[in-house]
Amino acid sequence: MQFHNFKTADNILAGIEVSMTTFIPIDDYCKVVGGLIVGKSANAEDDLNNASPHGIIGPRSEYFRVDGTKFFNFNFNNAAVFGDCSHCWHPASTDQGARTISTINLTIDSSVTKRVLWQYPFRGIIWDMDGTLTGLGADSWVTHYYPHLLQDECTLDDDVYNGLICDNTIALRSIAFSSYSPDHFDNMDEYIA
């Protein structure tokens, strides 16, 4: 599934939202290519004045890429270019929730003030393949802030990225345990110290 050259503007929730991708381990199997997404145009209706839309909300599954997409006018309320974990509003909607979105060849206009606004469960990961999202060069990362993730390679930028941006000397990965026994910790948040 690929969205080629989609143009969206003035959306209350998101320009493009992908809820689920098929589990096919090819990083660009499901992607947005060459899109143009405008947060708020001169033609916007009044309802948008109270909204905080996302340009793209990524899925609650792996293997989703955004390639060659342009973003403009995300400079009002809490509007942001990216969100994550579509339809993850409650704990039963997903597993651990740490999904990776990959990005490459983005154009983000200076009118954009917030690039990422994470959604529940606040565990997303964005792999910036060429540095066009973070400005930190190829293979840089964005994720929500948790104290254990604030390492020397990362900087907290809550205003623009709603979390951490990290350079290419590290890699962020989701960790999941399955088929463990005993299973009395099923469906519980687990923390690693």
Number of H- or I-type helical stretches:
1
N-to-C CA distance: 39 Å
Query: What general outline do the C-alpha atoms trace?
Result: globular
Strand order of the largest sheet: 1-4-7-10-12-13-15-14
Percent of residues in helices = under 10%
The Cα radius of gyration reads 17 Å
The computed structural class is mainly beta
Query: How many beta-strand elements?
Result: 15
Q: Domain count, please report it.
A: 1
Hey, roughly how much beta strand do the residues contain? 25-35%
Main beta sheet: 8 strands, mixed
Q: Roughly what is the average pLDDT, rounded to an integer?
A: 89
Uncertain runs are none
Order of helices and strands: EEEEEEEEEEEEEEHE
Could you describe the 3D structure shown?
- The chain has an 8-stranded mixed sheet. A 4-stranded parallel sheet has the order 2-5-8-11, with no helix packed on it. Strands 3-6-9 form a 3-stranded parallel sheet, with no helix packed on it.
- The chain has one domain (2-166).
- The protein has one helix spanning 158-161; strands spanning 2-4, 7-9, 14-17, 30-33, 36-38, 54-57, 64-67, 70-72, 80-83, 100-104, 107-108, 125-128, 140-144, 154-157, 163-166.
- The radius of gyration is 17 Å and the shape is globular.
- The chain starts with a strand and ends in a 27-residue tail after the last strand.
- By secondary structure, it is mainly beta.
